[in-house]
Amino acid sequence: MSKELYRTIYILCGIKDCEVLELNIQPDHVHLVVIVPPKISISTLMGHLKGRSAIRLYNRFPHIRKKLWGNHFWSRGYFVDTVGVNEEIIRRYVRHQEKMEQTHEQQMELLE
Fold first, then answer.
1. 3-class secondary structure for the chain?
2. pLDDT tens per residue across span 18-68
3. Residue 104 has pLDDT above 50, yes or no
4. Fewer beta carbons within 10 Å, N or C terminal of the chain?
5. Which residue segments constitute the domains of the chain, with CATH numbers given?
């Protein structure tokens, strides 16, 4: 399912003339670095991405509806920040997020 979500986010961003620079999909969240043109508000883009991707994934994988709390694919909120001189640091963080989380989980297991 993550491959389909990955593909869907690229397609939906393209429809809104947004350029995906980095995308990392985790089991419970997504990190996205994207260039958004001034004519598109962030809330419009996020509504488009979350709404259309949920519909597409529900149609492609109907069984996931039964596993989701309250029939919601996405949570209500999202975090947005602008990228300036630290763009490469943020892009590297998104690119390697999975490895960082695995390392953190392994460290936490050692403490148990």
1. CHHHHHHHHHHHHHHCCCEEEEEEECCCCEEEEEECCCCCCHHHHHHHHHHHHHHHHHHHCHHHHHHCHHHCCCCCCCCCCCCCCCHHHHHHHHHCHHHHHHHHHHHHHHHC
2. 999 999 988 888 999 999 999 999 999 999 999 999 999 999 988 887 777
3. no
4. C
5. 2-111 (3.30.70.1290)
The values of phi and psi at residue 32, to 5°, are -140, 125
Catalytic site residue from 6, 58, 78, 93:
93
- Between CA 26 and CA 97, with CA 79 as vertex, the angle to 5 degrees is 30
| Token representation of residue 98 | 């999975």
Residues 6+ apart with CB under 8 A from 32: 9, 20, 22, 23, 24, 94
Residues comprising the chain, all counted: 112
